[in-house]
Amino acid sequence: MKHLSIFRTVLLSVFGALAISGVLIFALAVGGNQESPVGPVSIWGTLDAKAFAAAIEKAAGADARFAQVTYVEKDPTTYEADITNALANGGGPDLFLLRQDYIMRDKGKVIPVKPESLSSTQFKATFIDAANTFDTAVGALGYPLFVDPLILYWNRDLLASGGFAKPPAYWEELSDMTQKLTKRSDSGTILKSTIALGEYTNVTNAKSILSVRILQEGGSITERDQDGRLTPAFATGTSTESALSFYTQFANPANNAGYTWNRSLPDARTAFAAGDTALYIGYVSEAPLIAQMNPNLSFAVAPLPQIRGRDRVVNTAHVYALAVSRAGENQDGAKVVAPLFASPSIAKDIGDVLGIPSALRDVLSEPAEGNGALFNKEAIIARSWLDPDPEKTSAIFRAMIERVTSGAMRLSDAIQRADQEMAQVIGQ
Questions:
Q1: What whole-number distance in Å separates Cα of residue 61 and Cα of residue 69?
Q2: What's the average model confidence in pLDDT over 376-384?
Q3: What is the pTM assigned to this prediction?
């Protein structure tokens, strides 16, 4: 740099800083002629319509390109089928919200963002690590907007009754808690549980919880081999065995110290909302629903527990990105509007109304009020894995857990079987 002119040095420094912050990603989209029409652009998603409508209305006041943008809230239970059927019939939205675990299933429905418009370096500098699964060799499969991390919900009254002033920061603390908080009848029936872990069918977020424990152990569920092919990783190393052993112990009646859950109990979220479970692991977005289920419940939120003594902290999350549909009628307009939504101001507006963190690093770096700081931190440490098919892999997780809790298989055998089943889903 000594031989460069002062002008060139300053110019390169400025552009380098912009690249690091990710500002260049949106320079062309947000700049330019804001009066140029983009036509009607329809968006489908499962998140709250009021939040999008308010943000679109606010954005349209400053940028005419939002004037004909509309959002339709779809039923989460039929969303995938609605998207598939609409695209098969040559219709459907111009943009749709794509969740990170549906990338492999839905990538054929998406027009990727060209690398020259959004490079891998720019992507990683702009969006959180949990969004990296959207960054592919053919380009980004969407613009990540929101992240919904796991958190720990805790019942103030139940913890206080056991002499605990705060929830556990580490998983290892659960052993002492289960001994003091779990209440059983003389016949052994669980009356009050400490936490919903160990089973699958009635543990609301079982797959996510076991996944994050595997990630915290340093393992993976799937990974790319040296040729870039997706492969199963359940049986790689000892991470899965350690995670599965920890998880299933809470449903083992022979474990007097830790037994606190079984499949005869209500689903985990219902049990927590009813005041019958002291701790509940759920997503940030579940908070309003829990409060609605029981307005009198005295509960608070805390970070997801970590493994004591580990240098890194890890969480997992659902990440939502705005993807351009291959069957949309206004693809040109969609390509203009999508990056506008991923600008910090608009993404923050929608995220604030939804009550979940932004997927943009710039937004997460801003000061937050109330529980926002906690949510943002959990979003920053979140990681995700490439899921070949969410429904099929959920069945694999369920079978792996229940083979252990039923005594049908040893840990190592259940994991080997899950690895084989994952390979079949991937198509190996």
A1: 12
A2: 97
A3: 0.90
- Residue 224 in contact with residue 230, Cβ under 8 Å? yes
Give the integer Cα–Cα distance in Å for 398 and 98.
Answer: 24
Q: Which domains does the chain show, CATH number per domain? A: 6-147+318-383 (3.40.190.10), 149-316+387-426 (3.40.190.10)
Angstrom distance (rounded) from CA 356 to CA 353: 8
| Bridge partners of residue 42, in order along the sequence | 70
Place of tokens 């206004």: 330
Hunting for tokens 């899921």 — which residue is that?
387
Helix (H) or strand (E) holding 150: strand 143-155
Please enumerate in sequence order all residues whose Cβ is within 8 A of that of 225, keeping only pairs 6 or more positions apart, or say none: 231
Residue 358 in tokens: 């932004």
Closest-CA residue to 144 (of 157, 125, 167): 125
Q: How far apart are CA 357 and CA 22, in angstroms?
A: 18
Query: Where does residue 427 rank: exposed (0-12), middle (13-18), buried (19+ CB within 10 A)?
Result: exposed
12-21, 254-263, 297-306: which has the minimum mean pLDDT?
12-21
Residues recorded for the chain: 428
